[in-house]
Structure formats: structure tokens, C-alpha cells
Amino acid sequence: MITRSKIYDMNYWKEKCFGVSAEALVDLAMELRAFGGIYGGNNKATDFLCLTLKMLQIQPDKEIIVEFIKNEDYKYVRLLGAFYLRLTGKPLDVYQYLEPLLNDYRKVRHKTPAGKFELEHVDQFIGELLNKDYYCDIALPRLPHRQVLEGAGQLEPRRSALEDHVEQELTAEGEVAAEAAEELLVQAAAKEASALNPKP
Questions:
Q1: C or N terminus of the chain, fewer CB within 10 Å?
Q2: pTM flag (> 0.85)
Q3: Are residue 94 and residue 117 in the same domain, yes or no?
Q4: What are the C-alpha distances in Å from 193 to residues 179, 181, 190, 196?
Q5: How many domains does the chain have?
Q6: What is the spatial distance between Cα 99 and Cα 158, in angstroms, rounded to a whole number?
Q7: Does one domain contain both 146 and 169?
Q8: What domain range includes position 190?
Q9: pLDDT digit string, tens, across residues 21-78
């Protein structure tokens, strides 16, 4: 309730968010230049937090949130969608849609409680959402550990991008080795045929 009252006091909320529609919300999200929670001595709310509350009020369809998360052109649209899904989504959806973002290493600006900006990365933001109970001054719903869902057969074991890369490298090396072996066999067969059938 305290955080909500701080948001309501913000000019950004009064001027940009108060009567905004779901369509206009996308435009506002595209204008974001940082993420964060409450900051400064006067406990002001960031634009990111204001838009989060507006999304909680509007309750956009899951398809819209997924589009936010999949948006590769606007980093903060992706973060906003991920944060909203973490607040409202089912655990399976949280893991399904957020874990792939652990491979997004782009830099983003974090507005700290002191009101300063620090550089972080998208994958750090997602890691915090998956592992913390409190982030951007908002209490996050309890998220079961991944192993619990795996043990229940609800979630496949996670494969990292590194594992996929190594597997691709090994596959490529195996194909090269197979081609080389095949070439040697062809050459050996040619030599054998030449020895059996010498030219007059």
C-alpha cells in the first residue's frame, strides 16, 4: 500500500498512466530508459514501477505479455513484461518464458534506491526474478524451486546455451572427422584397385 501511494503521488503517473489504455501502455514502455523501484530521500517511484502498477490494473492478456517478453528491439519492454509475468504468472510459465532471457546479455540501466544509475544486464535482472522474493521494492510471489517441478515431471531439465553450443561443436567436429575418414577409405580403395589392376 505504501508503494502504491508513492506511485499515485508521481507526476508521471498522473500525466501519463492514469487513464492509459493497453495499446498506449506499449508506447510508454518503449520510452523507458531504466528500471528500478523506489528511490531518493523522498521515496519516489520510478517510471518502471508506475507502468508495472498500471499493468496490474489493466491485466493484459497473456499473449500481450509474451509479446513484451519476446520483444528484442526494446530492452525495457522485455524487462517490464518479465517483471509482470513474475508477479502474476504460474510457475511453469515463469520458467518457460523467463529462462530463455538468461541468454540476453545486453546492458540496461538500473535506478538505485540512492537515485543513481548503475549498469546491469538483462540476464542479471532475470536471475534476480527467478531467485529472489523481493525485487524493485515489490514482494514477489513464492516460486517453487526448479528441481521440484522437474521432479514432478512438469518441467524438462534446463539446458544452458553453453551446452547447446558445445553439442553443436562436437557434432560439427564429428561430421568433419567422418568426412575425413570417408575420404581416406576412398583413397585406400583407389590405391587397392590400382595395385590389383596395374596399368600395362
A1: C
A2: no
A3: yes
A4: 21, 18, 5, 5
A5: 2
A6: 9
A7: no
A8: 159-200
A9: 888 999 999 999 999 999 998 899 999 999 999 999 999 999 999 999 999 999 999 9
